[in-house]
Amino acid sequence: MQQQEPAAPTDVVRYTVQDRVAVLRIDNPPVNASSMAVRTGLMHGIQKVAADPRITALVLIGTKNFISGSDLNEFSIPQLPEPELPMVIRALEELDRPVVAALSGATLGGGLELALGCDYRIALAGSVIGLPETSLGMIPGAGGTQRILRLLGPAATMSFVCEAKRHQLTLDQGHKLVDRVVAKDLLAEAVRFAQTVTTKRVLIKHPVPSWEPGAVEQAAATAISAGQGRGQIISAVGAIIAGTVLNAPAALAHERAEFTRLRHGPEAAALRHQFFAQKTLAKAHRPAADIELQRVSIVGAGTMGMGIARAFAAAGVQVTVFDTNERAARSALERVQGDLQREITKGRLSAAQAAMIRENLLVVSDCDQLAGSQLFIEAVFEDPAVKAEVLAHMESIAGSAVLATNTSYLDINRLGQALQRPENLVGMHFFSPAFRTSVVEIICADATGQSARDLVFAAAKLLGKVAVPAKVGDGFIGNRIFNAYRRQCELMLEEGVLPYQVDRALTDFGFAMGPFAVADMSGLDIAWRMRRSKDGSRDPRERYPSVADQLCEAGNFGQKTGSGWYGYAPGSRRGERHTGVEELIINTSALKGIERRSFTDGQIVRRVLLAMANEASLVLAEGVAERASDIDVMLVLGYGFPAYRGGISFWAANQSREQLEREMTELAETTGYGFTPGDLELLIS
Ligand code: NAD
Predict the structure, then answer these.
(1) How far is the CA of 144 from the centre of ligand 1 (A)?
(2) Angstrom distance (rounded) from CA 685 to CA 487
C-alpha cells in the first residue's frame, strides 16, 4: 500500500474487531449517505487494518442502509473534497487482506461502487442495489461501469447502468453482483464469511467476459432510445464500450472524466434541484407514522374514480366504488380487469399484484355499502352543484370520516359550506392515470382540520405519491399554471402558428406532450365546460381565444370523437394535421383582424415558459403554493415538464434577469387587458 498521510478517525465510521476480523460500521444518519466524513473514516479504518498484522480480514457494514448513495450536496461544489471515492476504493483494493461488504437496506450509487471495490459482497434478503446516477444526469464516477462490466459483460452492464433501476435481492433470487444473500444476522454472517475467505479478489483486475457484438449493439440502441438520447446515457454507453477496448486504468480515468464533466453540466444541476425539491416536500409533510389506512370509499366510477380505486387496491387497501350509473360502473370494472390481464401478458404486472387489486376492488350498486371507510373520495362530474350534493350525501354515510374531493378547479371552501363538518373536507387532486402518476395535489380549505390533513398525506405516502400542498384557488397550483400556458398557446394560434408547430416546439424542448395533443387526449369538453362556467364573470376587454369553443360546438372533442386539434384515423391515437382546423384558425385571425406572423420554435417555447413563470409567481404571492420548488415538482411530475430542465423556477433562475424583464413587458403588451404581472423575484430567490 502507498504511504499516505494517516486519515483522521470520524464518528460516522466505527472500528471494532471480532475474532481477528475488523469491522467498519458506517453510521451517518439519516440515510447513511457517503460524505467526506464517511470517506475519511473509511480511509482511517483501512489504514488501521493495514498497520495491524493480527487482523485477517475486513468487513464493511452500514446502519440500516449500507450506503444509500453519495451526498448530492457535494456534487454541486466545483471540487469534490478529498479523499474522493476512487481513492477509498483503491485503498481497499491495495489492502493485503480480503474485504467483505455486508449490504443491507439500500446500496446505491457510490455505495454500490464502494461495495464493488471490496473483494466479496454478502447481502441481507430484501435489500436493494442499483446505480441511480443516470437518472441524476451523470454516470457513475468511481468505477461502477468498469467493475460491473467485469461481472455482467457489456450488454447487461448497459441495461444496469442506463435503466438506473433498483434491484431487490431475495433468498431465491440474488444477483450476479452479490456472492451470497442471507435471511438474517448480517454482521455475524459477514464475519463468518470473512473468516472463510483467504484470498483477495480484485474485480478491476479481472478480464471483461467475452461478448457478442450484435447483443452489445442492440443493448446500446435500446438504452439510448429508452433514455431519449440524453447525454448521460450516451456517455454511459461510451464508458462501457471504452472498458472493452482500453486497459482498466485508462477506462477508469475516462469514466471519471465523463462523470466530472456531466456533474458540472446544466442537466445534472437541474435534476439535483428536482431531487432536493422532492426531498424538501417529503420532509415538510411527513405523515404521522401511526395512521393505518385500511378502507377507502369512492363515489364516481369514471376515469378518475376507477384509477384512484386501482391505486389504493394495489397498495393493499380495500376499496368500495359507487356510481349512480350502475352499468357504466360495471363496465368500468370490466375495463380494469381487462387492463390487468393485458398488463400481465405484457409482463408489466405480476399475477400476484393483479390478484391483490382484484381482491381489494369492489363496485357496489347501493351507496350505503360505502359505510365504514376512513376516507371517502368523490370523483364525479366537475359541476359544483353535483359535487355539493354528492359530498353532503357522502357525509351522511361517512359520519366523521374524512371526505376528499378530486375536483380540478372548484372552490373547496364553497363545497365545504354544504357540509355539517367542513373540517373533514380536503382536496385530493389526482392525475390521470391515477394508478400510475407519481404526484397528488393536496388542497387544504380554510376549514380543513389537522386530522383530515394528516390522513390524506398518509394516504399519498401509502400510494407512493409525492404530495404537493396547495391552498384553494382556481385550478390550485398545477391547473392554474397549465391554463395560463395553454391560453398563451391558443393566443399564438390566432397570431400566426398552428397546433403542430406549438406541440413540436414544446416536445423538442422536452415536454412529454404538447398542449394540443394533451387536450385531444383528455378531451376538449372538460376545459370547454370550465370556460362556460366562467362566461358570466369574464371581462369582455380580455382577449378570448375562440377556436377551441368552435371545435367543441361542432362536436370535436379530441381523440374520443376522432377529431379535435388533430384528426384521428379510426382506432388510432396518432394525431394528423387537420386541414379544416388549420383553416378555421387562419380564418379566425382574419375575422379578428390579427395579422398572422411567423414564430420560431424558440419564441414559442420562451413565451410558454414566461407565461408559466409569471403565473407561478402569482401562485406564490397568493400563498396557493408554499414554495417555488413545490411548483417545480408539480410541473415535472404532473404536467410533463422535462425533469432535466429542473422546473419553472429553476429555468427562470438561470435566465438573464434583464431579458426576462424585457420579454415579460412584451408578453403583457401582447396578451393585453387582464394580464397580471407577477413578481418573478418570488420565484427566483
Ligand atoms: P368521468 O365523466 O369519467 O366520471 C364521472 C363519473 O361520475 C361518471 O361515471 C358518472 O356516472 C359519475 N357520477 C356523476 N354523478 C354522480 C353521482 N351523483 N353519484 C355517483 N356518481 C356520479 O369524469 P372524470 O374524468 O373521472 O372526472 C371526475 C372528476 O375528477 C372531475 O371533478 C374532474 O374534474 C376530476 N379530474 C379529472 C382528471 C382527468 O384527467 N380526467 C384529472 C384530475 C381530476
Answers:
(1) 48
(2) 27
Q: Where are the alpha helices (DSSP H) in 346-446?
A: 351-360, 384-398, 412-416
Query: Mind listing the pLDDT tens digit for each residue in 166-195?
Result: 999 999 888 999 999 999 999 999 999 999
How many whole angstroms from 362 Cα to the centroid of ligand 1?
A: 18
Q: How far is the CA of 382 from the centre of ligand 1 (A)?
A: 7
Cα-based distances in Å from 317 to 357, 373, 463: 9, 10, 10
| Residue from 298, 304, 382 to probe ligand 1 pocket by mutation (most atoms less than 8 Å from CB) | 304
Is the distance from the beta carbon of residue 102 to the nearest atom of ligand 1 less than 6 Å? no
Left (φ > 0), alpha (ψ -120 to 50) or beta: where does 101 sit?
Answer: beta
Task: Report which protein residue has its CA nearest ligand 1's atom 1.
Answer: 302
Sign of the CA dihedral 10, 13, 42, 107? negative
Best mutation site among 408, 442, 522, 528 for ligand 1 pocket (most ligand atoms within 8 Å of CB): 408
Is pTM beyond 0.85 here? Answer: yes
Distance CA 562, CA 559 (A): 5
Residue nearest to atom 18 of ligand 1 (CA): 390
d(CA 529, CA 548): 11
Residue 244's pLDDT band, with cuts at 50, 70 and 90, is very high
Ligand 1 centroid–CA 636 distance in Å is 24
Please list, in sequence order, all residues whose beta carbon lies within 8 angstroms of the beta carbon of residue 185, skipping any fewer than 6 positions away. none
Residue 299 Cα to ligand 1 midpoint, Å, equals 9
Compute the average pLDDT of residues 295-319: 97
Rounded CA gap, 565 and 578, in Å? 7
Q: Answer whether the bond into residue 422 is a cis peptide, omega within 30°.
A: no
User: Is residue 40 lining ligand 1, measured as CB closer than 6 Å?
Assistant: no
Length of the chain: 685
Q: Which residues pair with 558 in a beta bridge?
A: 563
Residue nearest to atom 17 of ligand 1 (CA): 324
| Bigger pLDDT: 527 vs 130 | 130
How far apart CA 413 and CA 428 sit, in angstroms, is: 14
The domains located in the chain, with CATH, are 2-263 (3.90.226.10), 295-476 (3.40.50.720), 479-684 (1.10.1040.50)
| In 379-490, beta strands by DSSP E | 402-405, 425-429, 439-444, 466-471
pLDDT in tens, 591-600: 999 999 999 9
> Three-class SS of residue 630?
helix
